[in-house]
């Protein structure tokens, strides 16, 4: 090199500062918080309207296809069962490609399959469409929980989770009541197609409103061994395992009560018509209120006391439904609904902080137990109904609720010592 040549130097690469690595939270009171809350409200609305819209029309399935009440429950149980296992895969996928896209794509596909179920000419075709619908919707619940845990400031997470679950409750309400009312003026097929179209609009609104992730860090490549290690670690975590059991019990009792309440109210001494029976699902309004205030309850009373209050509400409600007095039955279903949403909101907000880094895996495990409980207990409840009537359904639901209360006590005790 000539002596006169200038020596070119390059600056050393700058290391990321602590500030650049710190999470950029969405804080309460900002426009981003409002957009996120409304976006997740539409996500919860569409997902649970699609999932539970078949509950009020199960007696219609019995008449249209000649199936038994227990067989009619497969329209819900297959959807929730496939959703449970889809959640595991979607949590892994979202860890690699992002949360927002998985959520909105799942909503869109689920709405399209609900339309296909409504147009199916056979019982087998309807069940196949519902199973695929559950598979598609699995991309929403766990991923939405993780999206909130990653993006919302920790001190506001309980309230944000409550708003998301309030949207879920509203969706479940509109899916059930709307279907019941529409079948008074049109067929259940028309009602399912109309709901699918409405949820396509909700998916578009969610995509428009949800901000891009600020704190998401994609995992490189597929590593099943690592995923299995994360899941195994969560299953061995004494602070998480009882919460998974709570999820199994919680949705099993809730779905069983709503699955067969319609069959009971159609018989003596109530002998209600379809439109009147669908009004029972208005009890979900109490769940919307309960889920929206559950975050404040956890902040004020603590998780343990909130879980105990929720399960005691469910136990009292199950007992009231056993009475042959319509106001008592309605009050009982309302109490079960309040308890369910209080416990579910509180438990959902406990999963992420106890999971460490692999929050998506922990959320997917919780929802696996949650929806397997819905599928298994919801279908088994049909056997209790056919062989022992409502007294057998109420006895089984009460026993299972007691198991859930014990699991909640273990969960909070283990958390304090972990």
Q: How would you sum up this structure in a few lines?
A:
This protein is an all-alpha fold.
Description:
- Residues 32-416 form the Major facilitator superfamily (MFS) profile domain.
- It is found in: Cell membrane.
- GO terms for molecular function: transmembrane transporter activity.
- The chain has helices spanning 18-21, 31-52, 58-65, 69-72, 74-97, 99-119, 123-137, 141-151, 157-182, 188-209, 224-235, 241-266, 274-278, 284-301, 303-321, 326-355, 359-417.
- Helix 14 runs antiparallel to helix 15 and helix 15 crosses helix 17 (359-417).
- The protein has 17 helices and no strands.
- The protein starts with 17 loop residues before the first helix and ends with a helix.
- It is an all-alpha fold.
Structural topology:
Elements: H1 18-21, H2 31-52, H3 58-65, H4 69-72, H5 74-97, H6 99-119, H7 123-137, H8 141-151, H9 157-182, H10 188-209, H11 224-235, H12 241-266, H13 274-278, H14 284-301, H15 303-321, H16 326-355, H17 359-417
Helix pairs in contact: 2-6, 2-9, 2-10, 5-6, 5-7, 5-17, 6-7, 6-8, 6-10, 8-17, 9-10, 9-14, 9-16, 12-16, 12-17, 14-15, 14-16, 15-16, 15-17, 16-17
Q: Find the count of extended strands (DSSP E, 2+ residues).
A: 0
Q: Which percent range fits the helix content?
A: over 70%
Distance between the termini: 66 Å
CATH superfamily: MFS general substrate transporter like domains
Order of helices and strands: HHHHHHHHHHHHHHHHH
Largest sheet: none
Beta-strand residue fraction: under 5%
The chain-level structural class is: mainly alpha
Rg computed from alpha carbons, rounded to a whole number of angstroms: 23 Å
Shape: globular
CATH class: Mainly Alpha
Tally of DSSP helical segments: 17
CATH topology type = Growth Hormone, Chain: A
The residue-averaged pLDDT reads 84
Level-2 CATH architecture: Up-down Bundle
């Amino acid at each position: 090199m000539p002596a006169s040549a200038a020596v070119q130097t390059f600056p050393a690469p700058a290391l990321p500062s602590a500030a650049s690595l710190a999470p950029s939270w969405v804080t309460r009171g900002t426009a981003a918080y409002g957009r996120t809350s409304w976006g997740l409200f539409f996500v919860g609305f569409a997902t649970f309207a699609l999932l539970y819209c078949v509950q009020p029309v199960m007696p219609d399935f019995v008449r249209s296809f000649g199936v038994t009440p227990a067989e009619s429950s497969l329209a819900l149980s297959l959807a929730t069962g496939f959703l449970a296992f889809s959640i595991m895969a979607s949590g892994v996928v979202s860890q690699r490609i992002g949360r927002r896209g998985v959520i909105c794509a799942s909503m869109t596909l689920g709405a399209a399959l609900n339309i296909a179920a409504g147009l199916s000419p056979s019982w087998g075709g309807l069940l196949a469409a519902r199973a695929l619908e559950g598979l598609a919707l699995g991309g929403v619940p766990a991923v939405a929980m993780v999206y909130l845990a990653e993006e919302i400031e920790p001190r506001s997470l309980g309230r944000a989770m409550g708003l998301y679950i309030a949207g879920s409750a509203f969706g479940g309400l509109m899916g059930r009541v709307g279907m019941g009312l529409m079948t008074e003026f049109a067929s259940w097929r028309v009602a399912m197609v109309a709901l699918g179209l409405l949820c396509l609009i909700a998916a578009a609104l969610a995509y428009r409103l949800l901000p891009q992730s600020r704190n998401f860090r994609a995992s490189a490549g597929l590593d099943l061994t690592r995923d299995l290690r994360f899941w195994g670690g969560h299953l061995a975590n004494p602070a998480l395992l009882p919460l998974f059991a709570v999820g199994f019990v919680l949705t099993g009792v809730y779905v069983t009560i709503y699955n067969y309440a319609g069959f009971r109210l159609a018989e003596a001494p109530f002998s209600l018509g379809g439109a009147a029976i669908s009004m029972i699902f208005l009890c979900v309004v109490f769940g919307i209120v309960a889920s929206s205030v559950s975050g404040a309850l956890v902040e004020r009373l603590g998780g343990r006391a909130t879980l105990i209050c929720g399960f005691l509400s469910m136990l009292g409600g199950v007992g009231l439904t056993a009475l042959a007095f319509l106001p008592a039955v309605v009050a009982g279903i309302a109490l079960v609904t309040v308890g369910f949403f209080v416990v579910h909101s509180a438990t959902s907000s406990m999963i992420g902080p106890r999971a460490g880094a692999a929050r998506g895996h922990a959320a997917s495990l919780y929802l696996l137990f949650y929806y397997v409980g819905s599928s298994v207990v919801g279908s088994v409840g049909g056997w209790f109904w056919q062989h022992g009537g409502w007294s057998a359904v109420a006895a089984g639901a009460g026993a299972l609720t007691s198991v859930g209360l014990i699991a909640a006590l273990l969960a909070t005790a283990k958390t304090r010592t972990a």
